[in-house]
Fold each of these.
Amino acid sequence: MSQIKSKNALITGGASGIGKLMGLQLLQKGLSTLVIWDVNESLMQSTANELTQLGFKVFTYVVDVMNTQQVIDTSLLVKKEVGKIDILINNAGIIVGKFFIDHSHSDIDKTMGINSLALMHITKAFLGEMIQTKEGHIVNIASAAGMVSNPKMSVYVASKFAVIGWSDSLRLEMENANTNVKITTVTPFYISTGMFDGVKSRIVPIVTPQKAVDKIIKGIENNQLYVRMPGIVYIIYLVKGLLPIRWFDTVVGRWFGMHQSMDEFKGRS
């Protein structure tokens, strides 16, 4: 079981949405210091003020996670000002929500950069101390979209496929080397935050932010390898492996309505 009390945690994209809620819940469970990385300085300061008024210790850093040098430089500053990060939650992410042909080259670079590459660079920046002290927990927020292809999500799906593969490979490396560094990969269905404003789901329930946070924090405490939500996500690989692809497309895409789930997508303004 990973300990939260008296530890230091860093959450990327921690100024709003489930990032903010995870930070609050970790602090309520006895976290010593919360470090927030976010690109939105005003929103981050508002969140920090709200948490410090509750008596919690919060450090904030404006970081564009696509900027690798900024990630490296800020990680060094965090180690100097805060100390070792015990719990790293790679939460920052974006979605464009267009057909692939309508993506700009910048859309592709940003989606892959923020959703995939940034997680690797940030983890690389903090992993060494975790291995050295034989203590640490890394949480990578992927998506059920990394398990199922879907129209108007092609680049987002690609970025989350990458996260799942990298995160689980990292888990195996940490286990094989007996580092005691825990890796948890999170693959939720749509979460009802501004990021997915406008999505529709015919059968599979959209996850509430608080439900998502409760499951993620429990996953940290219990050293879960994967946190999937809702429960039906656990059988995606089984169904996908058993059914011919055209049958799978029909069941998931047509009967469950997944291929139309992004038709009215608006996203965060």
Note: The chain has one domain: 8-260.
Amino acid sequence: MEKLWKYIICSSAFVLAAMVLAAAYTSSSRSEGTISVTGLGETQFASDMIVVEGEFSVKNDAAADGYIELENQRKRVLSHLVSNGVSEESISFNMPTAREVFESVYVDGKYIGETSNGFILRQSFIVESMEVDAVEAASRKLPSLMAEGIMVEVYEPMYYFTKLESVKHDLIGAAAADARARAELMATNAGSSLGKLISSRAGVFQITAATGDEEFSAGGSFNLSSRVKKARVTVRAEFKVKNN
């Protein structure tokens, strides 16, 4: 009988200890939690590289004569750009192309075939330069060559920033710091203290015009048409919090 009481006492002690540990775990769980926040990093910068593309064309009855004419126009386009402050090293011309054009022939209103109507020759060019101001000004003046009979077409400039990777790194750091500041503010206002970072994840980069209402894209956006741009990224972070 004495041994039986010993077993009963030991069993009761084990049960009581388990109850105490369970209560302590429950109390600990209630005193700790997590908080999720989104931080924002944003900055504005001016592009330091410009790319301008264009092309010019001639029409001639003979391909050989058309090529000579096209070559003279190429020299004139090059001269125009260089004389307006664009370095010759930043200008490149692609291989010219030639296409024979045909005209439909009718006799007494009946189609009888086609006849050659000469050749159209084209040559495209591209300017890639860090001389943004000079290339901008020179490209705007290129259409004036049409007054000389040069049929030139210039496309809208594209603007790039060669130090974009460093901007991205800085933005991620700023967004992460903003996320922590937001989490600390929320925790303090709730009477809690902020704990360790559990996880964090950066969103996609959105590079838009500095002004305007350009829409963001789920896959990220990269504006090329604006010289002055705005870059932004978000960081989603989760922290531990403890109730005070």
Note: Residues 1-30 have pLDDT under 50 and may be disordered.
Amino acid sequence: MRDTKHEIKAVLFDLGETLLNFGRFSPTRIFRQGARLSYDYLKNCGQPVGNFEYYCWRNLIALRVRHTISNIRRNDFNSTALLRWMGKRKGIKLDGQQWRHFAWLWYEPLRDICTTEPTIKETFSALKKLGLKLGIVSNTFVNSHSLEKHLKQIGILDFFTVRLYSYEFDFRKPDTRIFKIAAEKIGEKLESILYVGDRIDKDIKPTLRIGMQAALKTAYTNAGRGLPDGAWKLNQITELPSLIERINAAAVAT
């Protein structure tokens, strides 16, 4: 039975398959698209990029090795920093703005396949009108500049006063430390925070374990799996304002 004695005062969100829907896709195809865009950009800037296939495979192998290491260590890495380091070793010289654009070109193919709910801005406006604080806690090796550029293009970046990305820490979800840090930054007690995510193992179970409330967003990542005891279910983010109103009304009544 759900414990509804605490009002929700803040909501934290996952990104992939929660706010940003990428669906099933071919990582290799997306990687090659990003490699092509970044390669062409460097070449147009007169940088020593060499052969495209060599450029593509060199970066792919480096990312896969680092990703394997991160899985062993259970933390994430800054893929942009790695690609930048790889480029500098080959003699590529760019200024800060150019490096940021270079990173964005690697991410752009993911942006292009992403979908969001049509009324997502209106949903977040409704959440703000309820007086809720909003934040993001996401496992990712994508640099925050690219992610936040994407969120800004959608028109929802400014809704989130707290934004935590796992590559900035020595741990990642389901390690509960990242949720506790987010709670401290957003300034609310754990029991007054609702976490919304698509992964039962990394989003729902750890947040329930530390006393947060949790809502599972329907996605292919949890298809066919049962809803954990104590969690709420969302088919769409647009359902969130009414769900929170119900939860808070029940909390006041107890």
Note: Residues 27-113 form one domain.
